[in-house]
Structures are given as C-alpha cells and as structure tokens.
Amino acid sequence: MLLKRIIVALIFIPILTFFILWGGFLFLGLICTIIGFGLFEFYRGMKREKLLTNIGILLGMGIPFSFYLMGEKAASPILTLVIFLFLFGQFFEFKRWRNSTDAFINIGGILYISFLFSHILILRNIPRIGSTLTITVLFATWMGDTGAYFIGEKWGKHKLLPEISPHKSKEGFLGAVLVSSLAMFISRLWLCLPLIHTAILGILIGTMGQMGDFFESMLKREIGIKDFSKILPGHGGILDRFDSVLFTVPLFYYYVKYLIIS
C-alpha cells in the first residue's frame, strides 16, 4: 500500500506542478476534471439517480469557469443561481426527485466539492505569486496529511473522534499541525511570508486539513464505504486525496488576500 502511494505521488506531483506553473486554461481544465471526478464519486457514493448525478456534475462544473472568469465576485451570484436551479427543479421533477433530500444532497455536493475547490483558481490568479502560493498550500496540506499518517501509526494511542474515524488519533492530529507548520517554514525558501503569518498558516492548514479529512470520514461512515473510488492506487479516489485540500485552500486564499496582501 505504501509503495503504491509513493509511486502515484511521484507521478502525480510533477504533473500537477506543471499545470500550476503553466496556469491559464490548462490549469482550469485540470481543476474542472478533478471537480468532475469528485462530483461523480460523491453522487455515486450517495446513490443518486443518473439524471441527478449528471445535472449536479453539469452545474458543478460551471462554478470553476465562473471563478476563473469573474474571480472572487462570482461566488455569491453563481452560488445563489445554482441553489435556486435545484430548488426550482424540485417543483418540476417532484415525482422523480421524491423528496427534498435529493435536492439538498446535490446542492451539498456542489458546495462541498465545486465551490470550495474552485478557490484554487483565484488563488492561482493572484498576480506574480499565485503559482507559488498554490504550490505552498498544497505542499503544506499534503505534508500535514503525511505527518498525521506516520505519527498516528507510530505513536497514536488516544482516539480523537472514534465514532467518526476510529483509526485517527490525537497524536496524529498534532502530527499534522506540526508537520504542516514545518512545511510552511520550509516554504519560505521560495515564498517570503512574514514569520508570524507563516506560523499561523501552518497551524491553520494542519488543523483545517484534518477537519477536511474528518468530514469525509463522516460521509463515508454514513454511507458505508471505505473509499470513494480506486482511481488512485494506494490513495483511493479523487475525494480521498483532495478531502483536506477542500478545506485548506479557501482558508489560505482569504487569509493571504485580506491579512497579508491587503
């Protein structure tokens, strides 16, 4: 399992880095692909009808395009439009949709996956340092995941939230925060952030990354699956790999924009 994870990472990370550095529509295409697969995994796990799955993916894919073209200001109007489209669909497709749960699951998938992850596009589009910021938040997030895994495996004795994820420990959580913080300080080799902000971001990324992991664990436990798919050997599905990123990227973007750049 560990060997598979390493091999996939060695292939995936250089490709992802290339897309980030290139930017533009190439990076947009990659993000749309990740979101599309993520939505498909989510709706399949939730056992949605094919029609609802296709509608959810179609509308969800519109959000990254809006973020790319309109920036942060697209979030409110586009998000509102998507929600209303699903609510109105309840009236016209009531017999097919059965009850309001269907609509809210579809809306939830779009909010959770498409809306949150689309923030990576406006992070990447920050002038001059966008690509560096994007690489940094992914580096710190995934290093935190790695720290949580190895420290939890080695020293994890005290369960954190056993009713949600019985294998995750308090030691692993602290390991994530510690290693994410270390990664943020390492990132000062290529991104010169003030020391105080570097420390705060390390703690926030480590914490929020684990919250993202716990949130997905809660979803998987609720629907009774181990992984959302097997598309990434050793890692599981797209959502299994990007669960922590969904929570860290928006936080990182707003922190950097309003507390450092502004």
Automatic annotation (TrEMBL):
It is found in: Cell membrane. InterPro entries: PC_trans (IPR000374). Its EC number is 2.7.7.41. GO terms for molecular function: phosphatidate cytidylyltransferase activity. Keywords: Cell membrane, Lipid biosynthesis, Lipid metabolism, Membrane, Nucleotidyltransferase, Phospholipid biosynthesis, Phospholipid metabolism, Transferase, Transmembrane, Transmembrane helix. It is a multi-pass membrane protein. This is Phosphatidate cytidylyltransferase.
